[in-house]
Amino acid sequence: MPSATFDADLAEAGPTARALRALELIQGQPGITADRLGDRLGVTARAARRYVATLREAGIPISSVSGPAGGYTPGRGLRPPPVVFSSAEALGLVMAVLDGHHDPDDTDDPVGSGIAKILRTLPEAVAAQADAVRRVAAPVPDRADARPAPGPTATLVRACADGREVRVDYRTEAGRELVLDVQPWAVVVRHSRWYLLCHSLTSDATRAYRIDRVTRVVLLDGTFTPPPDLDPVTALVRHLGEGWDHPVEVAVEAPADLVERCIPTTMGRVEPVTGTTCRLVGSTSNPTSYAADLASLPGAFRVEQGDEVRAAVRALAERLLAACD
Questions:
Q1: Is the dihedral of CA 232, 235, 240, 244 positive or negative?
Q2: How far apart are CA 289 and CA 286, in angstroms?
Q3: Of the candidates 110, 102, 216, the residue with the CA atom closest to the CA atom of residue 153
Q4: What's the pLDDT tens digit per position in 65-74?
Q5: What distance lies between CA 61 and its chain's CA centroid?
Q6: What is the pTM of this model?
Q7: Beta strand extents in 93-231 (DSSP E only)
Q8: CA 12 to CA 53: how far, in whole Å?
Q9: Are 306 and 246 in contact (CB under 8 A)?
């Protein structure tokens, strides 16, 4: 009886399809045993060995090691096989495109065009379900989504990987045009927005720039090595919570770990004071929004620094009281 873990698409497959799937599994999971290979193919271990023998007869090098720690691995000189998708994988690609708020049926968009090309190359039985979803599903636009251009994004990613300095043409939220020389440390995607975390040579400071506001990227000759202990996500979140127009300090009657779970990390850093109290230190350019986020704190709080935020909290409280009346 085949294992419940076998690939459903192979239920009616012939020997050739199973042999190709066996090759894909061996490449993707070097060291896979005959028993495990049989489970995934929906056959016995003995039958799985026959598929391996078929591959070897076709000139495909497959190495094997016997014993408890043994298994099959691709041999040296193996050429990459054609990419094979299951129907579940094809559907997953379309769903991922929809999750990213792209229209998979828009062939003028690079993502829609790319997914259409992939589906056209697949067998009809494999592509049918994914193609149906592509044609009938419609993504809901995300107002917070800011999609960067593929060209500058690809150059920035390559510069991060190669440790190359770059010159960036950047348009600020206010519309100012800037030319910046930076050392690109990492590209980080957070809440549907793409950021470049970098060291700015222009200002000699750590910066985070929205990639959707980057209009041009030029590779420079200079190279660099990013900080060895760099955590790009943590560094980005910390940077987004610092350096804004209005400094804020809030005393909270709740444990620090609980507060960190209840508010956006961009509000600032949470410092324990006692086991049951803490202090939130941050900054904001939007006191009204910051006050609304403070309302979600899991305990009583007091704005100890930040006249603008204090006034916004008072205005919010008056609105809520008026709503009760």
A1: negative
A2: 6
A3: 216
A4: 876 667 888 8
A5: 36
A6: 0.56
A7: 164-171, 177-190, 193-200, 205-210, 214-223
A8: 21
A9: yes
